[in-house]
Design a protein that fits this description.
The structure is a homodimer. The first copy, chain A, is built from 13 helices and 12 strands. By secondary structure, chain A is of the alpha/beta class. In chain A, the strands form 2 sheets. Chain A has a 6-stranded parallel sheet with strand order 2-1-3-4-5-11, sandwiched between helices. At the A-B interface, helix 4, helix 5, strand 2, helix 6 and helix 11 of A face helix 4, helix 5, strand 2, helix 6 and helix 11 of B. Chain A binds a DNA duplex through helix 2 and helix 4.
Chain lengths: 337, 337
Amino acid sequence: MSKRISISSIAKDLGISITTVSFVLNGKAQEKRISDKLVKKVMDYVEKIDYKPNSLARSLRTGKSNIIGLIVEDISYPFFAAIAKEIEDKAYRNGYKIIYSSTENNVGKTKELLEMYKDKHVDGYIIVPPEGIEQEVNALYADGKPVVLLDRYLDGVEADYVTVNNEDSVYKAAQHLIQEGFKNIAFITLNSLQSQMQDRLSGYERAIKEAGLIPYIKEVSYDGGERTKKHISSFLQRNREIDSIVFATNYLCVSGLKAIKELGLRIPEHIAVVSFDDYELFEMYAPSITSIAQPTGAIAEQAINMLLSRLKKSSLDKKKQDVVLQTSFIVRESSKT
Amino acid sequence: MSKRISISSIAKDLGISITTVSFVLNGKAQEKRISDKLVKKVMDYVEKIDYKPNSLARSLRTGKSNIIGLIVEDISYPFFAAIAKEIEDKAYRNGYKIIYSSTENNVGKTKELLEMYKDKHVDGYIIVPPEGIEQEVNALYADGKPVVLLDRYLDGVEADYVTVNNEDSVYKAAQHLIQEGFKNIAFITLNSLQSQMQDRLSGYERAIKEAGLIPYIKEVSYDGGERTKKHISSFLQRNREIDSIVFATNYLCVSGLKAIKELGLRIPEHIAVVSFDDYELFEMYAPSITSIAQPTGAIAEQAINMLLSRLKKSSLDKKKQDVVLQTSFIVRESSKT
DNA sequence: TGTTTTTGCTAAAACGTTTTATTAATATTG
DNA sequence: CAATATTAATAAAACGTTTTAGCAAAAACA
């Protein structure tokens, strides 16, 4: 086993000082007036022995880790997995690595995660925030760590945001159903106070109100399957006049589709369906399901770009940015008369 | 801004030595014979000021980072996303964090990733290895870093493995089709030399040979959509006698389903379908698709357990372990006559 | 009592960098 | 020619830990 190679072993081998080696390695040769000859000597040697600086030592000294913390609700949801992929890819190309975690919308777990991330001296954060984490996020900001929030809004938090036009998207989706002639349009959503859910609900309510229709709102909790399906099923049975549904998320819609199938209802003849958040399944399903598609690529790109630019200039002075991206409405068979 | 709090500031505040504080903090008070009184004093103070050790400094000194590197093919594939979630969860509960990356089966990128991970002093690795990375993986092992390989096998590599019974699963799937009376059974796979793909192919070939049938093997490359579909489509058109297909992966099957639909063929009347790797879509599709389900939870759990146990005892002496988990065969409508 | 053991604690080195302050040598100026 | 400015390089401190080796006092022993 060869002796551990370090900046000081290089200095010794070359008969020069550690400082000089460090300057050369950090591209400060010009600024610090190291002679070209010496620069070349160092570079050649470093090349030859394939020296790689120890990033831990560097981080300890500089306080920068070149790590970005990514905190999403659940990395196994297609939406977040897709975003994670894009973010990782771009971060990697900029010399950053990603540490990720899933919050499962649990505030306690999220707080612990933030502790651990801080401890690892993460340089910046991309967070899909659960409710109740406002203080901690503000603390990060106060600590000079850039934060970009994703997917949802947090009141009274000084951070950059990337969201989509939730209200308007659902408004338009409901309008589409109205135009197609549906009269009793239901909205099935999570029992959650998260901003994106509230906004989607508002969009529905606005469209229904404008059209002078009766709102049918059902809030369910998502448990990954059976119970959610049951709740939707009994809701539909108790309100047989419902002729169409807007689902607030794609997994709720999947549960809904199962419920509808079990009830023996046909889409769209008996009941029309529109879902927020597109999903491969919706394209393939028979009938195919109309949906509101979020631009995952653009969301991820915006988020990582905003974070990287903050990291570059440590420009916490710049005013906070809100970016609202546009969804696209994909009309398929499930909503046409 | 309060002065940065460290082990030495604590020592100073308490009028004792750094060493003592460190010993107490690391639970070595007993061993090092620090008096109970002093231990309590330190602990109380640490509690009061909510001191958290700087993990960078600790890592620099100890060479341990408490970070696990997770390298998968593509974090946005449901299979890998599901595994990532489980691994992250368990690692987190054991005080480890996960850094992840996607290789996209690119050897060059993977090598770079391993460089970066080494640089970050990652303690252990869970890798879904692309072909051609054998040397680098062996180097990790030689370096004393535990490695667990996932999903596929690498010849001549000293590492723990977690895989599934690929050969046998496909053998049984083909047998199932044979028993259902299908005669011209095709196998559509990736043009890849990866072990899991080769094993799946072998299983198909064995079943076909045993039954004295003609093999129909089509290797395609996966491009995420259109071209793959076209290739499958033209393959089916050129071989109209084919009455059933086994797909080697779920995304190939999705492309296949699109091709089949476009050709106007009905499942299973005109053509039966079985896919490797279950997918939510298969359960919901009309007709529902028979599939070979991988136990993602068990795979992830095995992998992280094996890695954690190696990390605990740094027991590189222990012989390498191969764990082969069993898939389950889910018969649905697409393969029944 | 004098010697050895045990107890309780600590000094200082090491991990591998970055960066500030400084020095010595050379070049430029008045 | 002496004084000043520039060039080229370096010593040493700092980042915050862990850990080896050792020391002084108290206790146990002969």
